[in-house]
Amino acid sequence: MEKPSRMAIVKSLEQLSLLGALTDDYKLSDPVGLQMARLPLDPLYSKALIMASDFKCLEEMLIIVAMLSVESIFYFPREKIDEARAARKSFLSSEGDHITLLNVYRAATECLKKSKAANRKEKTVEKSLNRWCRENFINNRSLKHARDVHSQIKGHVQQMGLVISSCGDEMVQFRRCLTASFFLNAALKEPDGSYRAIASSQNVQIHPSSVLFRTKPDCIIFNELVRTNQNYVRNLTRVDPLWLPELAPQYYEAQKNSCMLWAILVFMFCKLIVLVKLFI
């Protein structure tokens, strides 16, 4: 294994500090840092689960972390591309990819419940789920992997004593939790329709696979940056830009990031001017 560079170590420490995992003398904080250390996950995902307990949507965040930990959940065979796209539409959320993934997992869980309620044998239950996956063009292997990951991390959070509750269909609450968790991965729309990642100032584009590819909301949080000939972001959710300084003041209101906060305020002011002009 290659030794990480000094810069990589510094950036990792900075990230952990911003997530509240470290004290000023770089020891694990209590309780956040100690809790994060108990979860075998990326620090962002660990913090997301802890935040979700406070936001009372840990059930949903467990699903999202599991679904983000596996390969693509949808597949599009060339010979049935139109059917696959039509099937995907039944799960789509206008709020973004996270809630779309949540819809898939919930639908799969409902399929399993119905099969079990019919007193079917375990093999028959799995066959029913496999058939459901084929009909909906869901990658069965990825879904099974996500269910396994979900079971494992659920066991971890239960051992930690975190309260697993659901926000139901209250997706504003869940989107706020996503914002509080992934505030380091926020991007604002530029006048040309591209996006600028606030933390890195990189120019990025929404990946064509995202459900938000054509809608282009004003502000997004993302979970993956894909570098090809362009910088693409995937696994997105639309958020209110004013949630960023509200839910992550330790980052957006820090003096070194005052320019970021200023950019958000200028962005909102410009949007307000546009709205005023529409009503004049």
TrEMBL record:
The organism's place on the tree of life at top rank: Eukaryota
Transmembrane portions of the chain: 260-279
Species for this entry: Iris pallida (Sweet iris)
Catalytic activity: ATP + H2O = ADP + phosphate + H(+)
Molecular function terms from GO: ATP binding; double-stranded RNA binding; hydrolase activity; RNA helicase activity
First and last residue of the signal peptide: none
Protein name, per record: RNA helicase
Enzyme class: hydrolase
The keyword Hydrolase appears for this protein: yes
Matches recorded under Pfam families: HA2_C, OB_NTP_bind, WHD_HA2
One BP term from GO: positive regulation of transcription by RNA polymerase I
GO cellular component, one term: nucleolus
